[in-house]
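thought: fold this chain, then report.
action: predict
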Amino acid sequence: MKRKQAVPGLLSAACIAMTVGCGGEREEKFEPNVFSERDMCIVKAEETGSRVCYGMEREEAEKAVGALVGEEKPGGIAYEEGVRLTYRENKVVGMDLLEDSRGRYQTARGAQVGMSREELVKLYGDRYMKPESPGMLVYYYDSRTKELLTEANPEMMKGGMDEAQDWYTASVILRADDKAEFISLMDRRRAVYMN
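observation:
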């Protein structure tokens, strides 16, 4: 009798172990057209453990990305392997993937420099702001309402720098061949005020 009761418990434990995997890290799953704070990270393409996320302390972020290759400028600080980070009060508020990041870094969702518009829309979804320029994809997320926006919200233009921190953006600049040249994750304050 006790043996029969132990089998379901062992099966449950095995299922949990397979779901979580070795090392306690799980590959994150994302749905298109659903955005959250989890999206506000970049990760090493070949490692799941090395990541930089919005709000992370500067010291921790710099351990993850490696050596500086440039000085601090209003647009951020360049690091090895094509990553540029922007800090406010020693916390990450902007992450840029430049050309040299291709094949080395990606967003938490898996977007990399060099991907096509179609691949990016497959990852992020088709609920993005329609920009003036066809060479861009821009996703805005209101962290207060937890909504992805498809058109400009008048509230985005109101208020000052503090309110601008509540709006997150994932933006991609596309080359003429419709492939990603530059990917940026940041809050609207960094986008508008470079701060």
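thought: worth noting. Confidence is low (pLDDT under 50) at residues 1-26.
final: tokens above.
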